[in-house]
Amino acid sequence: MTSLPRISTAEAVLPGVLKIRWNDGYEGIVDLRGIIGKGPVFEPLRDAKHFSELQVEQYGHSIFWGEDGNEEVDFGCDRLREMAEEQAAFIAKAS
Predict the structure, then answer these.
(1) Which pick of 6, 18, 45, 90 has the fewest CB atoms within 10 Å?
(2) Which helix (H) or strand (E) is 55 found in, with range?
């Protein structure tokens, strides 16, 4: 049985853009600007300082903002991986 990929580290590289490393060694950039630019739930993440205060959930299942156990916003590991791979493929195709 193979283990499921989990987030090892995540950091904000630009407001709305993350660099994420998974436990299987994959590293990718995830641009969330299109998502967090819409809707009131993402309002706090539009602040660059707050965006940079992201945390990785204890077991790497997600990243979140806010307090552990009382997260304001979170994004799951699987969807972030999917987005990183999609965005990398798009950039490769455009090059």
Answers:
(1) 90
(2) strand 55-56
